[in-house]
Amino acid sequence: MQSDNLTGGQELLCINTEKVFDWILNEATFDLSLNDLELPVNPVTGDQLECDDIDLDTVTCTVAPAEVDPIVVLDREDQVFTVDGEEVTLQIVNLRKNFDVTIFVDLVPELGGATVEVGTVEFTRCEQVILCAPDGTDVDVTYTDLDCFVCTAACDPGTTTEVDELDVTVTVRLCQSIQSTFDVTLEIVADFCQPRDILPFPPCPAPTMPQQCPAVFPNNGNGDTNDIG
Question: Which residues, other chains included, contact 142 with Cβ-Cβ below 8 Å and sequence gap of 6+?
Fold first, then answer.
């Protein structure tokens, strides 16, 4: 029976999985200058915002990987390195990373102090890493931390026909896990997993009685009535 095959000792298995050829963790910090960001309209009144309508001390940012092509492996080049006195061929991998930075600012208290989105700017940063990543392996980049903060912010008043603009410098910090992997088929000796125990349903609750109102019912039987109000 099939169920008999799931019990007993270990068995020789053939599985598909990923072999990790190399794995590094690294950190990067870079600055961005985001200039000429036009102030939006007031989301409540629909009026065009001006420099006097915003609090420059409240400018903030968020950063996220781009929705399209967040990580692009441009190319990789073999290079011989000496590690512990032994020559080894590794790869210099060129990466291109695409991000979106969004800028926010608070309105002055006189206008309600709401937070409004000024705009989103796309930017690209390139990086080289040294990996054991021969042709045929995949290079996977995972961000373990991705954050930003506003370093400086200034507002340029426009003219009667131009919209006021925000100039911001932003510092972006990222921590990343970079692996080179390859799909492999392995032969291993292991136990089959077993299904877990079924959890019992909780018992049915006992009947409950709604809260009564003894102050008004039943009365004390003496015929007196009390006004309620």
Answer: 176, 177, 178, 179
Beta bridge partners of 91: 78, 131
In a domain, 162, yes or no: yes
Cis peptide before 218 (omega within 30 of 0): yes
Per the structure, how many domains does the chain have?
1
Identify the domain containing residue 116 by its residue range. 10-188
As a whole number of angstroms, the distance between CA 147 and CA 105 comes to 17
Q: Please work out, in degrees rounded to the nearest 5, the angle formed at the alpha carbon of residue 40 by the alpha carbons of 38 and 43.
A: 175
pTM: 0.72
Domain assignment present for residue 118? The answer is: yes
Nearest to 114 by CA among 42, 39, 167: 42
DSSP H helices, the chain, are none
Question: CA-CA distance, 208 to 205, in Å (whole number)?
Answer: 9
- CA dist 49 and 71 (Å) reads 36
Express each pLDDT in 45-97 by its tens digit: 889 999 999 999 999 999 999 999 999 999 999 999 988 889 999 999 999 99
- Domain contains 82: yes
